[in-house]
Amino acid sequence: MQRAEAAGQFELSNALRFEDEPGGLVRALISTPLAEAEVYLQGAHVTRWTPRGQRPVLFVSPKSLFAPGKAIRGGVPIIFPWFGARSDGKPGPAHGFARNSEWVIEGTNLHNDGRVEIKLALAPNEAARGLGYAGFRLHFRVTIGFDLEMELEVCNDAKEPLTYEEALHTYLAVADIRPVSVSGLEGTAYIDKTDGFKRKELGNELLRITKETDQVHLSTGSTCVVHDPVWNRRIIVEKRGSASTVVWNPWIDKTKGMSDMAPGNWKEMICVETANAADNAIHLSPGESHKLSVSIRVE
């Protein structure tokens, strides 16, 4: 969608406008007395959310690519229809095709309380059909205010069942990952992807990052809290329709091998992802739909 078309239908006076990026992408810029944010139409990708008077809450790599067909490193990538590598032996990009696809705007709204809402949709495109996904619809709703609210709805329009994984792969900004802790996952079982996908269990202690971490915590709907003592803030991640929580940090060595991350970026971020993955994959019968949502706030 070109900027002129988007602006003519969906801009909100003094709240939301659309802008063409030099690389060919289009983004929505939101600025209100409550918050500032930006959302790219490619991937329906939220790349910035800063409540007024606070530090940025989302991390985006300074080396991230912003180009058609390239994944953005940071913010909130939408993962669908598989998490990580495709596991059925067929080809496909890591984390699926939704984050690299061009979404369309369904509508925008300025609420009476000052929150801005933008709704986007993705239907089967050539890439999705080529990967065997021709009977789905995705609807993504982002509401921006003092809280960041996101809802992903998956609809199965096919005549056969749809099994998929999904995640809102949220990168949270922290001052320094080393003193950070995460509460809400105590006692959960998880898949440790850095240790041969072994099944493990977290004890009653808070989760702390001391090395490369890639953990899929299973069968948990609990709210997570990221405790950042250096910036003296807590980031609360409250979710619904999600039975998995993924925690990721690439640490030192992996970051060095990532072309879209600067060497020190591992210290500045932690992913706490609202997901349905592995054992918690979603199974939809024809005509069914499922909603996954998350609300993020800072205290």
How is the topology of this model organized?
Blueprint: H1 3-10, E1 16-20, E2 26-31, E3 35-40, E4 45-51, E5 78-79, E6 104-110, E7 116-122, H2 126-130, E8 136-144, E9 148-156, E10 162-164, E11 166-168, E12 171-173, E13 181-183, E14 189-192, E15 198-201, E16 207-208, E17 213-217, E18 224-228, E19 233-240, E20 244-249, H3 251-256, E21 269-276, E22 282-284, E23 289-298
Task: Characterise this structure.
- The chain is mostly beta strands and 299 residues long.
- 6% of the residues lie in helices and 42% in strands.
- It contains three helices and 23 strands.
- The protein has helices spanning 3-10, 126-130, 251-256; strands at 16-20, 26-31, 35-40, 45-51, 78-79, 104-110, 116-122, 136-144, 148-156, 162-164, 166-168, 171-173, 181-183, 189-192, 198-201, 207-208, 213-217, 224-228, 233-240, 244-249, 269-276, 282-284, 289-298.
- The strands form four sheets. The chain has a nine-stranded antiparallel beta sheet with strand order 6-7-8-9-23-19-18-13-16, with helices on one face. Strands 5, 11, 12, 14, 15, 17, 20 and 21 form an eight-stranded antiparallel beta sheet that branches.
- 39% of the residues are buried.
- The mean pLDDT is 96.
Percent range of helical residues? under 10%
Could you say which overall geometry the principal axes of the C-alpha atoms support? globular
Oligomeric state of this protein: single chain
Number of E strands: 23
Q: What is the rounded Rg?
A: 18 Å
Which band does the percent of strand residues land in?
35-45%
Number of continuous helical runs: 3
Give the biggest sheet.
Answer: 9 strands, antiparallel
Separation, N- and C-terminal Cα atoms: 37 Å
Overall pLDDT level: 96
Following the backbone from N to C, one meets helices and strands in this order, namely: HEEEEEEEHEEEEEEEEEEEEEHEEE
